[in-house]
Protein backbone atom coordinates (compact mmCIF):
# COMPACT_ATOMS: atom_id res chain seq x y z
CA UNK A 1 0.00 0.00 0.00
CA UNK A 2 1.08 3.54 -0.50
CA UNK A 3 2.68 5.40 2.37
CA UNK A 4 0.47 7.58 4.60
CA UNK A 5 -2.72 6.43 2.86
CA UNK A 6 -5.24 4.85 5.16
CA UNK A 7 -7.16 1.95 3.70
CA UNK A 8 -10.88 2.40 4.27
CA UNK A 9 -12.60 -0.97 4.59
CA UNK A 10 -15.57 -2.89 5.92
CA UNK A 11 -15.16 -6.47 7.05
CA UNK A 12 -18.01 -8.76 8.01
CA UNK A 13 -17.98 -12.54 8.31
CA UNK A 14 -18.65 -13.10 4.59
CA UNK A 15 -18.08 -9.72 2.95
CA UNK A 16 -14.98 -7.58 2.73
CA UNK A 17 -15.16 -4.21 1.00
CA UNK A 18 -12.04 -2.13 0.41
CA UNK A 19 -11.78 1.44 -0.85
CA UNK A 20 -8.92 0.25 -3.01
CA UNK A 21 -7.99 -1.43 -6.23
CA UNK A 22 -5.67 -4.33 -6.88
CA UNK A 23 -2.36 -3.51 -8.51
CA UNK A 24 -0.53 -5.77 -10.97
CA UNK A 25 0.94 -7.93 -8.18
CA UNK A 26 -2.35 -8.30 -6.28
CA UNK A 27 -1.68 -5.69 -3.58
CA UNK A 28 -4.43 -3.33 -2.47
CA UNK A 29 -3.80 0.31 -3.34
CA UNK A 30 -6.07 2.78 -1.49
CA UNK A 31 -8.47 4.64 -3.77
CA UNK A 32 -11.22 7.17 -3.27
CA UNK A 33 -12.77 6.14 -6.62
CA UNK A 34 -12.79 2.31 -6.60
CA UNK A 35 -14.37 -0.23 -4.25
CA UNK A 36 -13.15 -3.83 -4.28
CA UNK A 37 -15.44 -6.62 -3.06
CA UNK A 38 -14.26 -9.95 -1.61
CA UNK A 39 -17.15 -12.41 -1.12
CA UNK A 40 -16.87 -15.34 1.32
CA UNK A 41 -13.09 -15.16 1.81
CA UNK A 42 -13.11 -18.26 4.05
CA UNK A 43 -15.06 -20.39 1.52
CA UNK A 44 -17.79 -21.12 4.05
CA UNK A 45 -20.37 -21.64 1.29
CA UNK A 46 -20.79 -23.53 -1.96
CA UNK A 47 -21.61 -20.94 -4.62
CA UNK A 48 -23.28 -21.23 -7.99
CA UNK A 49 -22.22 -18.63 -10.52
CA UNK A 50 -25.78 -17.23 -10.49
CA UNK A 51 -25.79 -16.78 -6.69
CA UNK A 52 -22.39 -15.10 -6.75
CA UNK A 53 -23.53 -12.77 -9.54
CA UNK A 54 -26.59 -11.82 -7.44
CA UNK A 55 -24.22 -10.58 -4.72
CA UNK A 56 -22.09 -8.64 -7.22
CA UNK A 57 -25.18 -7.08 -8.88
CA UNK A 58 -26.57 -6.04 -5.48
CA UNK A 59 -23.17 -4.57 -4.54
CA UNK A 60 -23.19 -2.56 -7.77
CA UNK A 61 -26.73 -1.33 -6.99
CA UNK A 62 -25.70 -0.20 -3.50
CA UNK A 63 -22.61 1.55 -4.83
CA UNK A 64 -24.68 3.31 -7.51
CA UNK A 65 -27.29 4.34 -4.92
CA UNK A 66 -24.50 5.93 -2.85
CA UNK A 67 -22.86 7.73 -5.78
CA UNK A 68 -21.93 11.23 -4.72
CA UNK A 69 -22.09 10.41 -0.99
CA UNK A 70 -18.97 10.66 1.13
CA UNK A 71 -16.94 7.47 1.24
CA UNK A 72 -17.08 6.67 4.97
CA UNK A 73 -16.69 3.68 7.28
CA UNK A 74 -20.40 3.90 8.01
CA UNK A 75 -21.45 3.73 4.34
CA UNK A 76 -19.15 0.77 3.68
CA UNK A 77 -20.39 -1.07 6.81
CA UNK A 78 -24.00 -0.50 5.76
CA UNK A 79 -23.35 -1.99 2.31
CA UNK A 80 -21.49 -4.93 3.89
CA UNK A 81 -24.32 -5.55 6.34
CA UNK A 82 -26.93 -5.42 3.59
CA UNK A 83 -24.91 -7.94 1.55
CA UNK A 84 -24.71 -10.23 4.61
CA UNK A 85 -28.53 -10.19 4.70
CA UNK A 86 -28.61 -11.12 1.01
CA UNK A 87 -26.25 -14.05 1.66
CA UNK A 88 -28.48 -15.23 4.51
CA UNK A 89 -31.52 -15.13 2.20
CA UNK A 90 -29.62 -17.08 -0.50
CA UNK A 91 -28.78 -19.73 2.10
CA UNK A 92 -32.35 -19.88 3.40
CA UNK A 93 -33.71 -20.25 -0.15
CA UNK A 94 -31.21 -23.05 -0.87
CA UNK A 95 -29.42 -21.09 -3.60
CA UNK A 96 -26.13 -21.56 -1.73
CA UNK A 97 -25.18 -24.16 0.87
CA UNK A 98 -22.58 -24.57 3.57
CA UNK A 99 -19.27 -25.94 2.38
CA UNK A 100 -18.94 -28.92 4.71
CA UNK A 101 -15.28 -29.24 3.65
CA UNK A 102 -14.45 -25.71 4.77
CA UNK A 103 -11.49 -25.22 7.08
CA UNK A 104 -13.86 -24.28 9.90
CA UNK A 105 -17.53 -25.25 10.19
CA UNK A 106 -19.00 -22.05 11.64
CA UNK A 107 -22.69 -22.16 10.65
CA UNK A 108 -22.79 -18.43 11.32
CA UNK A 109 -26.00 -18.08 9.32
CA UNK A 110 -27.85 -20.87 11.11
CA UNK A 111 -27.64 -24.65 11.15
CA UNK A 112 -27.47 -26.40 7.79
CA UNK A 113 -30.62 -27.86 6.36
CA UNK A 114 -30.86 -31.63 6.40
CA UNK A 115 -33.23 -33.10 3.86
CA UNK A 116 -35.45 -35.90 5.18
CA UNK A 117 -35.08 -39.14 3.28
Low-confidence stretches: none
Total discrete domains: 1
Determine the strand fraction and express it as a percent band: 15-25%
Class computed from helices, strands and strand pairing: alpha+beta
The span between the termini is 53 Å
Shape: elongated
Mean pLDDT: 87
Number of strands: 7
How do you describe this structure in short?
The protein is of the alpha+beta class and 117 residues long. It is built from two helices and seven strands; from the N terminus they run ββββββααβ.
Structural commentary:
It is a single chain. With 117 residues, the chain is of the alpha+beta class. It has one domain (9-98). The protein contains two helices and seven strands; from the N terminus they run E-E-E-E-E-E-H-H-E. The protein has a three-stranded antiparallel beta sheet, covered by helices on one side. Strands 3-4 form a two-stranded antiparallel ribbon. The protein has a two-stranded antiparallel sheet with strand order 6-7. The protein is elongated and about 50 Å long. It starts with 8 loop residues before the first strand and ends in a 19-residue tail after the last strand. The mean pLDDT is 87.
Amino acid sequence: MTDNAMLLKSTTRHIRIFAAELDSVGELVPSSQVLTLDVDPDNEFNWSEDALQQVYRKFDEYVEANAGADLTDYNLRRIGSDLEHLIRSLLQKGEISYNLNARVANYSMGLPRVEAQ
